[in-house]
Amino acid sequence: MVLNDFLHLMPLLILVVASLIIMLVISVKRHHKIVYIITLLSLIAAFASLFEIGETEPYHISPLFVIDGFGLFYMGMILLSSLFVAMLSYAYFEQREERKEEYYILHILATLGACVLVISKHFAGLFLGLEVLSVSLYALVAYLRSREKSDEAGIKYLILAAMSSAFLLFGMALVYAMSGSMGFYEIGLYLSVSQEVPLILLIGFGMMIVGVGFKLGVVPFHMWTPDVYEGAPAPVTAFIATVSKGGVVALLIRFFIQTGGFEYPTLVLIFTIIAIASMLAGNILALMQTNVKRILAYSSIAHLGYILVAFLAGNALGVEAVTFYLVAYFITSLGAFGIITLLSDEERDAEQLEDYRGLLWRRPWSAAAFTGMLLSLAGIPLTAGFVGKFYILAAGVRTDLWLLVIMLALNSVIGLYYYIKIIAVMFSQANVSRERQALHPSAYLVSGITIALLAILLVYVGVYPTGLMQMIENLMLSINAPAL
Which range of residues forms the domain containing residue 348? Predict the structure, then answer.
């Protein structure tokens, strides 16, 4: 590697160095606030370094990575989301007896894995990023060891994620056996000159879809999602819903565009079935829940189905729609889980519907922010979620995906019910209070500021989406550039 390679990998190097510094600090003296500040500064520094390496032309670090506009945008989105999750974490972990400092090491390493995913153009880079992300999440999900549900969620995620990695590895091995290459673009070249796609290669792609499907939590690979969302600490749930899934979606887009996967009807049919099943199952199962975390878990399955509609468009508009929708989904999910984090106490998370009864009268600003997030998830106008859904519908209509467009519209109506159900509980006048004053109010200052920023972003992107759309359109041009 040359010096320029290190400069282009600066965001990743900052995260690596930050994790080492935190380990050294912990070895000298445990101090939650110091470790927290180091984490925030490292994520801010990593995000700021993106502006130094921003280039119009893709920069290739052969054979593993490519630094282009697509990768830089997704890295920025992941780092900002990780920063918001970290900001929400201090008050949450400060009131718990578990050792808190190691959480931030795992948090940074999981962020590092997601960043590696979005710039990967080779199977080795893909697997490296995916495992760094997954291994960190194993520990993060089960971090609160004194809670039975947390241990259960950690074990379930460990088993299913390990199985999905096995499927992914076997699929990559079959693709490599047939194509003779592990680079995305080289695999695309092999497919372009082949008379017909060998059956083994299709099986390899199918096994890779199984592996990626588990990571995304789409139907029929969604079994872990509600249990892990419920059992994991609230900030970790926010991380899984945003950073983890966003990194995998970015990887999937790059892989399919550079290999030409959209040109094969079998693969398109598989993703069409997955999209429809995810929308239906996610929304219908969410209707039956009384646990807010589980409602949002099934909601996330449905939203991944919506994203697949734009993904299947397979053109520039589709990529832009997926990216814009992810930005809107990140804002709303971080805000929703941020409210859950803010209202949780040392005993358990604020996850039951009854925990939110009368919230408007007890905490009007928290209720207003949560209402905005839920309305955005439902796709109500003047929110980021509405513009994102409209973008996806435009991509689907442009490519004549009428079945998927109709299913999206119908499922959006179904989803509206369970979002309104939570809002109705918050607006109820019955005052069932579970306030807690375990910490000084200043401990929640950063969390409150975080929620306020997300609420402002939610409305701003919903009312003035043009600037973000133009930024995405300019940065997405580089994804089709060939590998070197």
Answer: 3-480
Which tens digit of pLDDT belongs to each residue from 313-368? 877 888 888 999 999 999 999 999 999 888 887 777 788 888 888 888 888 888 89
- Let me know the angle formed at the C-alpha of 135 by 132 and 141, rounded to the nearest 5 degrees: 130
Structural domains in the chain (count):
1
Provide the whole-model pTM.
0.91
